[in-house]
């Protein structure tokens, strides 16, 4: 009988949590006992795993010494993190609340070797998973001098509240009623918002700083200049990225396309067509790439378009793949 591992999932009833449990089941991860936890009121909540409905327990009273692995989908207070560490648990963090000193940032297939460094790993923003998957492949044939990206982020990046807000605003507008923003600071339905998270004193949004930092860490190029704008798009699921790369030398487009075609984690859309989040990426484990073209003036410039499922591919799947790496190196 193969070895199994008891697991705790903090935030199992959220959008990402539900998908993570589904991916664990699909990939036949060796789960023994699974404990869905909540940092808030657990109440009578249940989480579906396979054919079972599991009662959600409170983090505060849970004994982490009973599990080998923790998925962290909700931010925890330092005291609760200390309890997990003291119990010797491996941990995969999706909250962005841990520092690089606490855990390396890893995208499976790009810098998987970093998973051997310790028992705690960070899964980056979904947009970073998509972008790093493409750039990690292209660095085989390109030297990067600068990355410029406009990331159009789905409202599901804000959880169910984001989805409910877009749905509510859409209904209000279609019924000729005034829009009442709640989660977002203004109308998001049929609109684009110039930032997708809180702005910091320097004018950059938090997710923009996080994207730039995590991308450099994953690519092993912390000094790589990254110019990023994160836009809140009126889309329920799926991130779309417009990317421009400045390379060391003139870009050989046939070589670039061949490199993208050969990558197992990518789907290159044929010339003359382009991928969309809704039509291609949703529910898929691939990152879709299209509109591959050279710059208009600078032959060292490469432009492309990326579409990826932010909940499944960018969050749940990468988290489970990191857990699989921990099985290999640590557990």
UniProtKB/TrEMBL annotation:
GO molecular function, a single term: NAD binding
Gene3D superfamilies: Dihydrodipicolinate Reductase, domain 2 (3.30.360.10), NAD(P)-binding Rossmann-like Domain (3.40.50.720)
Semialdehyde dehydrogenase NAD-binding domain: residues covered: 6-118
SMART domains: Semialdhyde_dh
One biological process term in Gene Ontology: amino acid biosynthetic process
Residues that span the membrane, as ranges: none
CDD domains, per database record: ASADH_C_USG1_like, ASADH_USG1_N
SUPFAM superfamilies named among the record's database cross-references: Glyceraldehyde-3-phosphate dehydrogenase-like, C-terminal domain, NAD(P)-binding Rossmann-fold domains
NCBIfam families to which the protein is assigned, alphabetical: PRK05671.1 (NF004224), PRK14874.1 (NF011456)
Entry's family note: Belongs to the aspartate-semialdehyde dehydrogenase family.
Protein name as it appears in the record: Aspartate-semialdehyde dehydrogenase
Species: Geopseudomonas sagittaria
């Amino acid at each position: 009988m193969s070895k199994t591992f008891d697991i705790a999932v903090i935030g199992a009833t959220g959008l990402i949590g539900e998908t993570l449990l589904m991916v664990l089941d699909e990939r036949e991860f060796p789960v023994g006992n699974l404990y869905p936890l909540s940092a808030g009121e657990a109440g009578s909540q249940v989480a579906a795993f396979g054919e079972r409905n599991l009662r959600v327990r409170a983090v505060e009273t849970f004994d982490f010494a009973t599990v080998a692995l923790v998925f962290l989908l909700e931010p925890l207070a330092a005291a609760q993190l200390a309890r997990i560490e003291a119990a010797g648990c491996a941990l995969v963090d999706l909250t962005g609340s841990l520092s690089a000193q606490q855990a390396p940032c890893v995208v499976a297939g790009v810098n998987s070797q970093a998973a051997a460094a310790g028992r705690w790993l960070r899964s980056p923003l979904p947009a970073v998973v998509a972008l790093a998957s493409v750039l990690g492949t292209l660095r085989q044939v390109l030297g990067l001098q600068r990355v410029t990206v406009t990331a159009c982020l789905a409202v599901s990046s804000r959880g169910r509240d984001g989805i409910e807000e877009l749905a509510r605003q859409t209904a209000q507008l279609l019924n000729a009623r005034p829009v009442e923003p709640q989660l977002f600071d203004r109308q998001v339905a049929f609109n684009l918002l110039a930032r997708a998270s809180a702005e910091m004193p320097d004018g950059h949004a938090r997710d923009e700083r996080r994207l730039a930092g995590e991308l450099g860490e994953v690519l092993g190029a912390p000094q790589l200049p990254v110019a990023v704008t994160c836009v809140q798009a009126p889309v329920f699921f799926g991130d779309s990225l417009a990317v421009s790369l400045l390379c060391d030398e003139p870009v050989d487009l046939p070589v670039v396309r061949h490199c993208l075609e050969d990558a197992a984690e990518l789907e290159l859309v044929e010339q003359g067509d382009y991928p969309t989040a809704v039509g291609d990426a949703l529910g898929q484990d691939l990152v879709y790439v299209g509109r591959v073209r050279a710059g208009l003036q600078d032959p060292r410039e490469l432009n492309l378009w990326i579409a990826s499922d932010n909940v499944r591919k960018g969050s749940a799947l990468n988290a489970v793949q990191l857990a699989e790496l921990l099985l290999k190196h640590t557990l």
